[in-house]
Amino acid sequence: MADSVAASVAASMAERRSPAAAFAARFEAASAGGGLRLAEIPFLTQINLRVDPKSPAAERIGTAIGVPLPVEPGTAAGGGDLEVLWLGPDEWLVVGPDGAAPGLVERLTEAADGEHVSVVDVSAQRTTLVVAGDRARDVLAHGCALDLHPRVFGPGRVAQTMLARAGVVLVAGADGFRLLVRSSFAAYVAEWLLDASVEYVAGG
């Protein structure tokens, strides 16, 4: 019985399909010209954390995960294989590699040590889309009202915003942007990105 259950779980995991998996080939084709890169980073661990930033628990959590919680609005902090995104005065999103959720939830909960802290695994809620390259800002500007100039929204900046009427968490990095988008909107946003990219793609 145990063997059959294990086999069933293994098969289920093998069949796991990311929200934007159907767009992989089209993303690759759009990225062929070199000026733009579109991709999906599926199955990242995402833990929503709510805690008073001035509390001892917040300091313990930062120590436990090796990344102090950023307190400047709209910023990100990273360390090792984790990144912490500021979402609000007492809210962060802790992002890590696929499969890290159980251990990360345990570390965060232990560090809270009974204080008023909320730790929720929201990994299944969103996928991550990459928009990188010299034309990344041009593409996003078609549907995002934020000023994406590097002096305003450069590496390490984070915003909860709208892209083509879809809510996203936009993260700026050294090589472009990541869009954390709800799984139910992933196909819509992927299609929109491909359409907005046409004029910047070789042969488009």
Automatic annotation (TrEMBL):
Q: Which Gene3D superfamilies does the annotation name?
A: Heterotetrameric sarcosine oxidase, Probable tRNA modification gtpase trme, domain 1
Report the domain of life of the source organism: Bacteria
Look up the coiled coil feature and give its residue ranges.
Answer: none
UniProt-recorded name of the protein: Sarcosine oxidase subunit gamma
| Native source species | Microbispora bryophytorum
